[in-house]
Amino acid sequence: MRLFDPAMKKALIVRHVPREGAAGYLQPIEAAGYHIERVDVANPDFAGVDLCEPDLLIMMGGPMGVYEHDAHPWIPLQITKLAQRLERDRPTLGVCLGSQMMAAALGAPVYPGGKMEIGFAPIALNGTGAASPLRHLEDVPVLHWHSDTFDLPQGVELLASTRHYAHQAFRRGANVLALQFHAEMGEDARFEDWLTHFWTDLDMAGQCGIALRDDHDRHGPEAVAAGRAMIAEWLGNIRQD
């Protein structure tokens, strides 16, 4: 049995739905010396969780929109807590819905983008070159699965875009990284759950599940390897209090 060392750094993963976890990013997070804990927003205890406390906060994706407060009353609470964490510049990573939560917490609007972006495709890096951890993703097809977007918050640096969505990734200093795409997905069996549970998304995007599964098998390992290198580099450069 692996015992938890209280001296280890703590990483908290916030899951908005169980089928969207950290997947391929778990490896570099653990390799960087973090003890990983998880909390689901559906857990009644979530309301009492201190999001400022963990050494690293990771917020994953979900099918809900940041603006759907009536359907998901935990959203404004999470944004308020997240804003407090970002005000303190605590290390924070957001993926897809998590990136949209970060944009909202930094004061930017989040809204439907008008197009369902689904499938494996490269991102275009925005003028950061070797200075950005996203350099590991250059020319690598990664998974996209979203239709919402956000305005770029003040004081952040845009890192990547695609043809359909200009704001695919941003960072603020060394400690805050937001990724709209899913470079963590490519080797996780839960991808089959995405195809099953989000089939209406495929219809809206005009995507074939069989073709997308084939792309996942072809591009997934390279995407995950590049995603892990990106996260490992970012974790190696963050500054703790």
UniProtKB/TrEMBL annotation:
This protein's GO CC annotations: cytosol
Protein name per the record: Glutamine amidotransferase
Domain Glutamine amidotransferase: 32-188
Alphabetical keyword list: Glutamine amidotransferase, Transferase
InterPro entries xref list: ChyE-like, Class_I_gatase-like, GATASE
UniProt GO molecular function: transferase activity
Domain of life: Bacteria
Species this chain originates from: Sphingobium baderi LL03
Keyword Transport part of the UniProt annotation: no
Pfam family, one: GATase
